Every structure is written in C-alpha cells, then in structure tokens.
Amino acid sequence: MAMLQIGAAPEPGAGKLNASFRLFVRLVALGSLAAGLQYWGGLIGFLNGGASRFDLIPAYWQFASAALSVLLPVAAVGLWMQVSWGPVVWVVAAGAEVAMHYGLPQWFGERPVLMIAHAVVLVVYLAFRLLLFLKWRKDALKVTSDSL
Length: 148
Fold this sequence. Notes:
The chain has 148 residues and is mostly helical. It is 70% helix and 0% strand. It contains 5 helices and no strands. It has helices at 16-43, 59-81, 85-103, 105-108, 112-141.
C-alpha cells in the first residue's frame, strides 16, 4: 500500500466539493509555477532584455528574487501533490511578495493586482477548508449500521 500516490484519482463518492477544491489548488499550483519561472527568467537575463539579470539588480532584489524563484516552484509542487507543506510554502512566498510590494513599495514598487490576487486566493482557500471541515464533521456525526 503506497503512502503517497501522485496523480491518483479521488476516492469514489468524494463529491463535487472535493473535486472543486482539488481543481482550485491545482490552478494555484500552475500560477505559482508560472510566477517562479518568471522570477527565474529575470534572474538569468531572459526577461526585460537582460536588465533584471542577477548581477545587475540591487542586493535587495537579488535576495527577494532568488528566494521567490525557489519558493514558488516548491510551493507549486506541494500544491499539485496536495501535501500538507504545499499551502504553507505558498503562504510564505505570498507573504514575502506582500511584504515586498505593500510594505516596501519604495524599493520593490507597487503591484496592487498581485496583492488582490493573493488575498482572493487566500480567502477562497480558507473558505474551501472551512466547507471541507464542516462536511467532514457532518459525515462523522452520521450514525451508520456499523457504528451501533
């Protein structure tokens, strides 16, 4: 019996809520992977005509870009596989971007659309988790013939 089955089909009868949550998390994973690749592209000089290459940007951008170019793809893998550390790494990466663009806009610039996107993803994720918890709790309280 395998502990982790990557790409395994959901259990029969899992319901539309579980399927919707799984789709949502996978879409966030794809977005995280794209954002991570964008940071990588900047660091190696592929984007912006090479102006955002690692050796040409200020030290604060070097630190932030290097960290996010690792954190975002790792979060994408964790979210795709639906392991417990995936959302945690995503929250760290999203929190870093919020701190950069909201807390230090004089260095990193303002990106209000990114801030709204992170907030929406976080709220939707928490709503899904709450609904899944309530469903689990309701299912756990059901009396079945084998629980008597």
